[in-house]
Automatic annotation (TrEMBL):
This is Putative glucose-6-phosphate 1-epimerase. It comes from the Bacteria. The gene is yeaD. Belongs to the glucose-6-phosphate 1-epimerase family. Its EC number is 5.1.3.15. GO terms for molecular function: carbohydrate binding; glucose-6-phosphate 1-epimerase activity. One of its GO terms (biological process) is carbohydrate metabolic process. It is an enzyme of class 5 (isomerase). The active site is at 163, 262. It catalyses: alpha-D-glucose 6-phosphate = beta-D-glucose 6-phosphate. InterPro entries: Aldose_1/G6P_1-epimerase, G6P_1-epimerase, Gal_mutarotase_sf_dom, GH-type_carb-bd. It holds the Pfam family Aldose_epim. Keywords: Isomerase.
Length: 287
């Protein structure tokens, strides 16, 4: 995505503007350290390109930007649950309109804060008062932090994931390491070598991964360190050809240039009492 070509709606500062993408409002960052784009629909990072380096985030060339469905690619915010724990799948945050709360900047980078709070519509899906904040820190690295706060009187259980799609040169030449000795696949726990390679569909939750996992992107001659905190698993996903062909918002060969490595609380195991908060984060470092 060429973020510099997006039509400008409003100039907020020297480095931050609000732009339009097929009707969606996008916060655009153009800073000496990096460029980035963040959709207010879904609170979703769509692009992160450190200066002088390749695009880090994968976006589907057929992604739907109408606001009628989740955006395929970027960093979807799966919250307040991950997967099919309830309806809708992956929660409602990724199809909700977030609010631009504030932005701060200096010579080192830009921090964008987005917020989401409960509404009658969310309470009909999930009967809790909440406040969620996304802190997106853009510099030589990208850090996304999801802060969940219980704004009600009764306890609530939350899960979720920062479902990062990484842009890679060739999935056949990609390896993810530091994944620990166990993963869950189709509900079954299996032993792991700590490394994932790709010769077909992969959809696994690694439950013992290191805080930092490494994506070896050999085709682009780089490796990407992904530092996760507040999680209890790392989800590794590539749909492979058959699933890609069944997705209206992914090109048939789209699976060749993407891999997901997600910081996740996969089982809604975080319990928050009234006023308590939890932070789930992922930081992306390209080398």
């Amino acid at each position: 995505m060429d973020v510099k070509q997006l039509p400008t709606l409003a100039v907020l500062s020297d480095y931050v503007t609000v732009c339009e993408l097929d009707g969606l409002k996008v916060v655009r960052v153009i800073h000496p350290k990096a460029t980035a784009a963040i959709s207010l629909f879904g609170g979703q990072v769509l692009s992160f390109m450190p200066t002088g380096k390749k695009e880090t985030i994968w976006m589907s060339e057929k992604a739907d930007f109408t606001g009628n469905k989740a955006i395929r690619g970027g960093v979807p915010v799966c919250w307040p649950w991950f997967g099919k724990a309830a309806e809708p799948s992956h929660g409602f945050a990724r199809t909700s309109e977030w609010t631009l709360n504030e932005h701060r900047e200096n010579d080192k980078g830009v921090i964008v804060s987005l917020t989401l709070s409960d509404t009658p519509e969310t309470r009909s899906i999930w009967p809790h008062a909440f406040h969620a904040e996304l802190l997106i820190e853009i510099s030589d690295t990208l850090k996304v932090s999801l802060i969940s706060t219980n704004a009600g009187e009764s306890e609530m259980q939350v899960g979720g994931a920062l479902h990062t799609y990484f842009n890679i040169g060739d999935i056949h030449q990609t390896t993810v390491t530091e994944l620990g000795n166990e993963y869950i696949e189709v509900g079954e726990r299996k032993p792991s070598t700590g490394k994932a390679t790709f010769e077909g569909e992969v959809d696994r939750i690694y439950t013992q991964a290191a805080e930092t996992v490494i994506i070896e992107d050999a085709a682009n001659q780089r490796h990407i360190a992904v530092v996760n905190q507040g999680n209890n698993g790392v989800v590794i996903w590539n749909p492979w050809q058959a699933l890609a062909e069944g997705m209206a918002d992914m090109a048939n060969d789209g699976f060749l240039t993407m891999v997901c490595a997600e910081s996740a609380v996969y089982d809604r195991s975080v319990t928050l009492q009234s006023g308590e908060s939890h932070t789930l984060s992922t930081e992306v470092i390209c080398k």
